[in-house]
Design goal:
nine-stranded mixed beta sheet; alpha/beta
């Protein structure tokens, strides 16, 4: 069974008198920084002068420096920026300021596990990976409730890496929910596999394929959208609340029978073989190298082309119109539109 830590396992004394430098102020960065600040810790932010997030951090009364200066001033340095740019920022701004005994912190193990970042042996390397988006992590912290997280120690140069990680987990509120011990390897590989095979790749491909099947058979795209995409939230919410068993308890017997008999027809032996190939690509690092090359050598050309093609699919056009019927969903629709505008 996994080792699980709770509130009494963490002690903020391991952060006392230290400066925490959070590099980045996006989804995870702002949540870690503000939660730690509100837990009584000294937090500074590292952002380039051109970053639009500087104004947000300053509005929260946080000190903001460029990444190199923040790394120089900090005892604990949290790299909370997107995976593809972490290695460059590390080499340019963090590595020159890594003194022996400092702590390098991550919320995801990608760059450490695949060795795009190789820290010197005289610093601690730790990870606390919250299992929620940053905005939700912040909201629940303010409500006095934490989100579960994963803890890993890659290097323990000081002999205090684990208690430091637990102190960080306590500071962001995750020990209130529970923190599971793992490794950088396990967190990274399971995270990537889950994203690709189920959470993002698998689900979106399954929805799209089912939608296209109904439309090709002559059914109205609007009806196909409701049956193959819209109602998925109802099912996921049930699974989230009580597992697959609770979902099956909650749906009709007809739906449950179709689940048992037709689900394995869709997710058959061939799909399992494909999942094994996906897992192998995660384990041997080929996906990581492909993704990094897409960013560093190809200028994200293929990625942006795929994004544009997906956004132009009929399911998105139909969905945009149907969601106008859903008053409760308008904030999400507006956020999506704003995000799309920002990307252009």
């Amino acid at each position: 069974m996994a080792k699980v830590y709770y509130e009494n396992d963490g002690d903020l004394k391991y952060l006392a008198g230290k400066t925490i430098g959070v590099i980045g102020y996006g989804s995870q960065g702002h949540a870690h920084a503000l939660n730690l600040r509100d837990s009584g810790q000294r937090v500074i932010i590292g952002l380039p002068a051109s970053s639009a997030s500087r104004a947000k951090a300053l509005a929260q009364k946080l000190e903001v420096y460029d990444p190199a200066e923040a790394s120089r001033r900090a005892d604990l340095i949290g790299l909370l920026i997107p995976d593809p740019i972490q290695a460059q920022v590390y080499q340019e701004s963090v590595a020159p300021n890594l003194k022996p005994g400092k702590t390098l912190f991550f919320a995801h193990g990608f760059n450490i596990h695949y060795r795009f970042i190789v820290p010197p042996p005289d610093v601690d390397v730790i990870m606390i990976a919250p299992k929620s988006p940053g905005h939700r992590m912040r909201e629940l912290f303010q409500e006095g409730v934490g989100v579960p997280a994963l803890l890993a120690v890659e290097q323990d140069a000081t002999g205090h890496a684990e208690p430091t990680a637990l102190a960080w987990a306590k500071g962001i509120g995750s020990l209130k929910a529970g923190v599971i011990r793992t490794t950088f390897k396990e967190e990274t590989e399971t995270d990537l596999f889950g994203e690709q095979s189920v959470l993002c790749g698998g689900v979106s491909a399954l929805i799209t394929a089912a939608f296209e099947t109904l439309v090709a058979a002559g059914y109205q795209p609007e009806i196909a959208y409701f049956e193959c995409l819209h109602e998925l939230k109802l099912i996921v919410d049930l699974i989230y609340q009580g597992g697959i068993k609770y979902m099956r308890y909650s749906v009709s017997d007809t739906a449950e029978y179709g689940d048992y008999t037709r689900g394995p027809v869709v997710i058959d032996a061939h799909v399992r073989e494909s999942m094994q190939k996906i897992l192998q690509g995660v384990q041997d690092g080929s996906f990581a190298r492909e993704w990094m090359e897409e960013n560093t050598r190809r200028g994200r050309k293929n990625f942006l082309a795929m994004r544009a093609k997906a956004a132009d699919h009929l399911i998105e056009k139909v969905g945009t119109e149907l969601r106008k019927m859903m008053a409760w969903n308008r904030p999400a629709e507006e956020a999506t539109a704003a995000q799309a505008q920002a990307r252009t």
